[in-house]
Every structure is written in C-alpha cells, then in structure tokens.
C-alpha cells in the first residue's frame, strides 16, 4: 500500500488498494489492529476538532502509524460513523476529512519541484482534477496567465514556467461550478457576481481549492451511513468505541444557560482544565472539547471564549473552530459531556463526591450560581476594562 493512498484514502486508487489487499476488515476489527485505534482517533478528532490528522504525528511521513494502518483506518472510520448513525456526525466527519486532505494538497502544491521529484506521495493539481473528472472542465485563465491556454494538464514540468504550472486564476465550466459551490458561502460565490465567459466562471486558485474541498467532502459523505452485514460481527466488536464517541457527544439539551460567568463558581473539572491551560500545557482533544462545550453551555459567544482564554495554551483559531461548531444553529450543537464521561476520560476527579449533586458540569454550575449569595460576572469586569481603556 503506498503512502499516497494512505494520505488520500478517498482516492479511487486507495479504494482499489484496499480491495486488492488480502485483509479482512472484520478480522482487523476483531484483532483490534492499530488501524482500529487510528480509525477511532480519526472520527473523534473529526467531530471535536475538524481534522482527521493523527495527534501522534502529522502527515506526511511522521505519522506514528504505518501506511497500511493509516489507509485501513479510513474504511473503519466510515464504519464507525455509520454506526453512530447521526447526520450531523456524518457532515462533520466528511468536512474534517476534506479539510485535512486539502491542507495536505496545499502543502503538496507548495512543495518545490525537487521535493516533488523525489517523493511519489505528493499530488499535483492535475492529479486532483483528474480524480474528480474535472480535467476538461478547469483551465488556467488565459487573461491572467500569459501564454497559458492549454489546460491545467498542460502545466507541470512541460508547462510555461511558474505561471503555467501555478497560475493565480482558472476558468471552471459553469456546470461543475454550480455543482461544487454554494451561494450560501457568500455573495461573491453567486453566479451573478462572477465573471462568466464562454460557459466558464473565473475563479482564483484559492477558490478552486475551496471548490475541490467540496468535491472531497461529497465523495467522503457518499454512501454514509451504510448498513453493516449482520453476520460479520463488526458492529459488536466496535460497540464500546461507538459508545465512547456517543457519550462524548452526549445529546442532552439545555433550556437556558445560566448566562453569568463567575469563574469562582465553576466546577473543579473546568477550573482544573483552565489552570492547566494557563500553565501553558496543551489540552488533549477531549479536554479542550469538554472546556469549550462548558463555556459555550454557560452562554459565552466564540469571541468571549477567545478573550476568556487569551492567556492560555489554547489558540484563538482552534477555539473559534470548536465554539462555532458547538454553537451552530443547525441542531448539531453538543452540550458538555456528563460527569461520568469526564471521569472515563480522567478529567473528573469527583472532589468531595459532588457527582452526587449533579450529573454534568453545567448542571453543577447552575446549582452553584443559584445558591451563591454573591456572583461576580466576568462580563461586567470586561466591560469596565473596555470603558477604562476607551
Ligand atoms: S463531578 Fe462533574 S462537575 Fe464535578 S468535577 Fe466531575 S465532571 Fe466536573
């Protein structure tokens, strides 16, 4: 199995490599092979962080998993997502596979020619367009790439210099453009706001990559969820991993958050996580998800969470991704995990046996706010600081 298939496991060649390999997914799952743990990580990170890259090493080359485990983790991850059987989970998983793939594509495209000539594990734009049957539908834009008018496939080593290989704009036929893009992405994507000539729409290179990300996402989502053959026993073998993922994404809903932010009343689990991040220690995926879900659960906006966590190891971009995901308005928001789940992840230490008081950190906080004689709202302090600065 080659490294390129492991890196882009949704490619047709990767599917063929899996089919041709003498491996049985039910046997791999039954044996709890490394690909199974990698698949669980793939789905967990997709749902919580919007990436499927391994926490134990970034691609290419440095992954702690070998190419075979990396490649086989993809079909197993699809099985896990099918077993989760949740539309929001499928959406998030497909989006994360696509985002991770396009990050790798961008790195491949930026790699210099020397690296590309020694590594077979990089793709070109031509490869990607061919993979999605877009080779004839996308052309470098002749108006911005002097001397380039013969299609992307004409670029590369035999192209017309750097502008030929990597022009800044392309023309994409209107059919594929409409299929791969959405007016929901903003006014600039609407056809009426686009330069349209000879049945083709002008797009920048970055926009073309965004459209290709949509193509990857659609391919990953295709066929999900699927039914598993009952006699193969995969569902039973993966039961505990699916249950963990479900618990982490507990679907309890809350009527109204307390909408007051008093750190002194936070439950110990959340205080511990904040203090850990303030010591500049990196939080694990589960830890940062639990903290973000709690802060969003008490009514903080993404901007407020960024400000609240300004002096911690959490970076603003990651906070924004997670909090926006948690607060989106399509019914896919996930409330904070329960105390039991947090205990399973080693986040809860159940100080003074207060698990008796509430089943989850948000309920515990609500009770403490309701019982407090005096509440100091962080928002009020922030507004006062802003007023002083002004
Ligand atoms: S019992 Fe619940 S609220 Fe308390 S520390 Fe554990 S997870 Fe947090």
Kindly list the characteristics that best describe this protein.
4 strands; single chain; 390 residues; 3 domains; four-stranded antiparallel beta sheet; mainly alpha; binds iron/sulfur cluster
Short description:
The protein is mainly alpha-helical and 390 residues long. It has 20 helices and four strands.
Give an overview in words.
- The chain is mostly helical.
- It folds into 3 domains: 3-85 and 225-231, no CATH class; 125-219, no CATH class; 252-389, no CATH class.
- Helices cover 53% and strands 4% of the residues.
- It is built from 20 helices and 4 strands.
- It has helices at 3-7, 12-20, 25-30, 34-49, 67-84, 87-110, 113-118, 125-131, 161-165, 174-180, 205-221, 234-237, 239-248, 268-278, 285-297, 302-308, 316-327, 339-344, 361-371, 378-389; strands at 138-140, 169-173, 196-197, 200-204.
- Strands 1-2-4-3 form a 4-stranded antiparallel beta sheet.
- Strand 3 and strand 4 form a beta hairpin.
- Helix 5 (67-84) crosses helix 13.
- The longest helix has 24 residues, at 87-110.
- The radius of gyration is 24 Å and the shape is globular.
- The protein starts with a helix and ends with a helix.
- The structure holds iron/sulfur cluster.
- Iron/sulfur cluster is lined by residues 267-269, 339, 342, 348, 350, 354-355, 361, 364.
- One of its GO terms (molecular function) is metal ion binding.
- This is DNA primase large subunit PriL.
- Residues 262-376 form the DNA primase large subunit C-terminal domain.
- One of its GO terms (cellular component) is primosome complex.
- Its cofactor is [4Fe-4S] cluster.
